[in-house]
Amino acid sequence: MSAVLARADESAIAGAAASAMQGAPLLISSSSEVHGSIASDTIVQRNCTLHVRGNLLGSLIIEPGANVVVDGSVDGRITNKGGRLLVHNKGLAAFVSVEGPPEAEACGILKINLTNLAANYERLTKQTQAECAAVVRADAYGCGIAPVAGALRKSGCKTFFVSNLPEARSVRAVAPGAIIYVLNGFYSGGGAAFADINARPVINCAIELAEWDVFVSTQAWDGGCALNVDTGDSGLGLSLEEATAFAPRVQMLSHGIALLLSRLNHAAAPNDARNARQLETFRELRRFYPGIPASIADSSGIFLGSRAHCDLVRAGSALYGVNPTPGATNLMLPVIELKARIVQVRELGAPASQNGAKKAARNASGSKRRTRLALVSLGQADGYPRPAINGRAPLQVVIGGERCRVAATPTIDLLPIDVTDVDCSVARFGATVTLIGDGVAIDDLAAASGSTGREILSRLGRRFHRIYYAT
Fold it and tell me: Which of 233, 259, 316, 357 could tie 352 with a disulfide, CB 3.0–4.6 Å?
């Protein structure tokens, strides 16, 4: 049984769960709520209520007066002896799963809201008539490729873009029927792995295409590939001249080209004239590849309108809450929340063993008032960025509902926070600090560190206690 209880009666359910794992049915003898799916047979006793925020995979017996609500599906046999059953059949039923070190031992807690992820995907799909693929490269931008891809598959996503073959394997494990494109392309000797996973390489140069052709011809492999063409100034992909020269191969019966790919280099600036030039260049190139599906729009490109959508759009960082339309209201829901603990509070001027604390003290030494510094249990090793020299705003965190300034560059393991204006009962040893969430958006962190939202996400470390959940 994979379930996390949300209310009381934990001991009773835990005992029943232990019996269920030994082959006996799970007996619900008091009103309970379960965050997760139940794999065992389940009996809900008289006048008890069971809310399953997941799926019921075994058989279900409902005794008189009992009420059962299932957010997902019921796959086993149902015997209703006079109770009530409500099944919502949600595609993405709520559940909880965890990864990484235990919460008490971790440097921080990273929560990923899969419901908001699915909602962002749905919102992006409604912006276009084209198919909407998901870009889950770089371990789903640091969010965890397997749970993210699994949630997107349940939300209807059929095509995924990954960085490399290990990521393709992760996606294939949770999305057996999906189309998977590998952005880093094909390399000599990699054909068997592509065939085993049934993944498609994104061809970025003529040598790759020649290597792929050799594998396809010698192994009689009929899997397709994508041709990536540089229509702007990215410097990655086939040149227009190469792409035009390869075009006659589409007249062959088994040409193997499944997708014509490019990328708008300035889609985040919708009024940039270079977007129109790139779209026109790509439109002309498509004439040489009749009948081949095409894709040029990423998350920001989706908001340029139908002229950029072609046959397939590629939703990337916007899925995870990054604003695809900088300068305008962010239509995406927040997906991640990052929290850590205060491990020490110091008065400035006291001896400090960490360089970051010493530097923070020096930075604030010009102030005549007493200053307090809180050291938080994460740093550069966990992906927290350095403040930008000329950032538009300072790096900030939230402690007890109050915004506090990051006092200095983080060390490898610690982040110094100025808590002078926060009550000592709030900014204290062991208190929780919100680094992303509670009004501190990923884009705020990016602006204050001179970075981008996708960079902030992709640097998230693996030392966090990770919680994947749906609501």
Answer: 357
Beta carbons of 416 and 410 less than 8 angstroms apart: yes
In DSSP notation, 140-199 reads HHTT-HHHHHHHHHHTT--EEEESSHHHHHHHHHH-TT-EEEETT---TT-HHHHHHHT-
The span from the CA of 340 to the CA of 334, in Å, is 18
Amino acid at 111: K
3-state SS of 27-38? EECCCEEEEEEE
Task: Go through the chain and tell me how many residues it has.
Answer: 471
Domain boundary among 267, 295, 320: 320
Same-domain check for residues 161 and 38: no
- In this structure, is the dihedral angle defined by the CA atoms of residues 250, 256, 259 and 262, taken in order, positive or negative? negative
Q: Give the span between the Cα atoms of 162 and 213, in whole angstroms.
A: 22
Please state, rounded to an integer, the average pLDDT across all residues of the chain: 88
Residues 169, 313 within the same domain = yes
- Return the amino acid letter for 206: A
- At residue 354, what are phi and psi to the nearest 5 degrees? -110, 140
CB-facing half-sphere around the CA of 318: CA atoms within 13 A: 30
Domain limit, last residue, from 64, 87, 110: 87
pLDDT of residue 123: 96
Q: What CATH number is attached to the domain comprising 200?
A: 3.20.20.10
At residue 116, the 3 state secondary structure works out as helix
Q: Which pLDDT score is estimated for 368?
A: 55
Q: Identify whether residues 200 and 280 lie together within a single domain.
A: yes
Residue keyed to tokens 């912006």: 127
pLDDT the model gives residue 195: 92
- 424 burial (CB, 10 Å; 0-12 / 13-18 / 19+) is exposed
Based on the structure, what is the number of domains in the chain? Answer: 3
Say yes or no: 397 and 294 in one domain.
no
Q: How far apart are CA 198 and CA 180, in angstroms?
A: 8
Q: What is the pLDDT of residues 298-336, one digit of tens each?
A: 999 999 999 999 999 999 999 999 999 998 999 999 999
Domain that includes residue 349, residue range: 336-469
Global confidence as pTM: 0.80
For residues 441, 447, 449, 452, the Cα torsion angle rounded to the nearest 10 degrees is 80
Q: For residues 265 and 386, state if they share a domain.
A: no
Type and span of the H or E element at 314 = strand 312-315
